[in-house]
Amino acid sequence: MVAFLTFPSTPRKLAPVLSVEEVERVLGALELAKYRVLFTTMYAAGLRITEVCHLQTSDIDAQRGVIHVKCAKGKKERLVMLPPRLLKILRAYWAQERPPKPWLFVSTRDPSKPVVVSTTRKAFEHATLVAGLTRKATPHALRHSFATHLLENGDRPARHPGAARSRQRLFDRTLRRGFYPNDREDQESNRSAVEDRVRAVIGG
Q: E strand or H helix at 60, and its extent?
């Protein structure tokens, strides 16, 4: 037996990086407010899908401008930045949907539980098809895309004090449309009123 021999590991492929315009198209293709705001939060805060699906309303610290991520990789808690515009979107979403505590995004079948990760992935996959993306992209692409967009803008790493301003500029540019609660039966009659209200909230 030769113990010192090693075999080459299988190369790991990086998640594709979406352009700012592609991110806009995907977010715009998500019809349900729950999923649109969920993926908006994932992109704006650089969260993993399991992290955003398990967010609780108490994790949103508006006063400090941070999100407390408790279901982080390796069971380690961490704080991520909460852009002001994302906070306004989350407030508008909460006022419209009133998700039962403690979860911010709840399961459709059982509102006492968080939204199901596998169902969330399917919603994203459907949105990429509706948006007409020519390449396959997973939700994790949003996390990679935002970090890449910051670097392309010449911005600093997230730990640098200037990162908050950099991320806010890019976030304002990318998420001009905000979100529209589309899962109501009377959505067509209320759509204009909802859009006007949300534009007033987020300045879109």
A: strand 60-61
Q: Where are the domains of the chain?
A: 20-202
**Local structure of 14: helix, strand or coil:** coil
Q: In CATH, what class is 20-202?
A: mainly alpha
- Nearest CA-CA partner of 203 in 172, 174, 165: 172
**Residue 21, H or E segment:** helix 20-29
Output the six-digit token pair for 107: 């399961």
pLDDT in tens, 173-183: 545 444 444 43
Any idea how long the chain is? 204
pTM strictly above 0.70: yes
Q: Which helix (H) or strand (E) holds 81?
A: strand 78-81
| Strands 78-81, 66-69: pairing kind | antiparallel
